[in-house]
Amino acid sequence: MQTRIVFIWMSILCFAGVTRSYAQCTGINMDGAYIGSPIYNSFDTYEDIQAGESFIDFITLQFGIPYNSNCPGWKLKVRALTNFTNGSATIDAQYVSLRFNRVTTGSPSAAAMGVSTAAIPLSTSDVTLINSNAPFMAPPDYNAVHKYDMLVQGGNHLMVGSGTYSATLVFSLYNSSNVLVSTKNLTASFTVFYSNSCTGVGLSSYFSNAYSFTTYAQQMAGATMTDAATIQYNPNGATCRGWSLKVRASGNFVNGGNSVAPQYVSIRFNRVNSGSPTAGAIGATNTLVPLSTSDANVINPSNASFNGGTEHKFDLVIQGGNHLVLPNGTYTTNLIFSLYNQANQLISTTTVAVNFQINSTTNSYTLVLQNSANQVDMNLTTPAAIAAGVSVVKSLGLKVTGYSAYQVVVKTSGANLVSGTSSNTIPVAAINLEVTKATTTSGGITCYTRPLSIVDQYFVTNPLSDYTQQVVEFNLRYFTTPGDSRFSGSSGTFTTNVLFVAIPM
What is the annotated signal peptide range for this record (predicted)? Predict the structure, then answer.
């Protein structure tokens, strides 16, 4: 009898050792897990894309629980190995969620586990689906089956191209010590049939309403060419939402050897001339967009698609200034308009030649800087030079030929002389210009002495009362005031440009 008692006692000890081993959930697997097929026509319209879709009971997780298991405090986690992809486009995993639906077989129950039915967005890092309050135990149940729904969030993120989007989901079971017990990889997918590629859409364009600058005042003020560029859309049966329109210049506006940089011209959306949708539906604004040789958005991703016969008008706004004081002629460049789809893929382009004319009355006069008057060097490198002042004379430096009354305007390109090696500046007003008549003429021509300025100043007025005043040469003297402190404390080479313009009186 004593021997039998000892034998039973040893059996109990052995059984207790097995129980401790299974307390860490050893042997529990998810080998029987599987994923169902998504709804075939779930994303075949724009409305479907925006609404999203719920795939009920999409994922079945089957837990195989070995005999004598007792697995408390277990956790179920999931991660996506990658974002969902159709091979060429991707949809972020965060737009797909999993939601616990129910327990169909075995225990513990959903209530006992304390599981939430909230949708859990996927990530490429582990997220927790269940943090159980109840153990897996066998007996009584050797299998537990859970159903999960897959929810695909609707929105423009689904408008990246048709195809089947797939990602591998890794389900991981952890014990109460957060030690990995088992994993199961399942491939989840959904199919987008709706195509927003805009394939087949065509663009065409034309130019109108060229502007002609005929006076100096207009050249300084600039101008707007209303409805200058017209863009026509031909969908050719394609669906195209979320599109954008971009524009770039091929280069400068050119007339022979003279040019105007595209940065001085801006484009803006004016209106929908025909077709639909409205400007409000598109989300178009009248914001000025400076041109450059790089693409710039003129219509940001549109909120609506266009139909056949849609036509948009764009204005070109030319900035006034010295850059327009050029020889007469037509200044031309090409604008390249490009249509992109929702995925920022280029769909179509159209090129239109645009231009403006300069036919300014200022060009009826001939004004020449001669005898090296186009370069003025003033040396103030010593305290004595600053104290005494410096004078540079360009004899017969300016020659003007004209056959009607005129004035000569002089101005600088900036408010300051600037250094190429430091941030120091000197006001242009620290330098004075004296203009005196060198040619013998009849009376009436008036010359002036003034400090230089960035604003227009008259230095010569010629009433051209007789032939002696048709071709006139002038002396130019640039000088500084003795002891001008504005030249003290700065060293280096300082420069500015001085512009001479003859304009009608």
Answer: 1-23
**Residue 466 to residue 443: CA distance in whole angstroms:** 10
Question: Where, residue-wise, is CATH 2.60.40.3590 in the chain?
Answer: 202-360
Q: Residue 402: beta bridge partners? A: none
Report cis status (omega within 30 of 0) of the bond before 277.
yes
367 half-sphere exposure, CB direction, 13 A CA radius: 22
Tokens of 80: 């996506």
Question: How far, in Å, CA of 297 to CA of 467, rounded?
Answer: 56
Q: For residue 135, is the peptide bond before it cis, meaning its omega torsion is within 30 degrees of 0? A: no
What is the residue-averaged pLDDT of the chain?
92
pTM of the predicted model, to two decimals? 0.68
* Segment 434-483, tens digit of pLDDT: 999 999 999 999 999 999 999 999 999 999 999 999 999 999 999 999 99
Percent of the chain with pLDDT over 90: 82
Instruction: Report the CATH architecture of 202-360.
Output: Sandwich (2.60)
pLDDT tens-digit readout, 79-89:
999 999 999 99
Burial 64-86 (b: 16+ CB within 10 A, else e): bbeeebebebbbbbbbbeebbeb
Of the candidate CATH numbers 1.10.150, 1.25.40, 2.60.40, 1.10.3470, the domain formed by 365-504 belongs to 2.60.40
Residue 11, SS3 per DSSP: helix
Query: In this structure, which topology does domain 2-192 adopt according to CATH?
Result: Immunoglobulin-like (2.60.40)
Can you read off the two tokens belonging to residue 325?
A: 């004081």
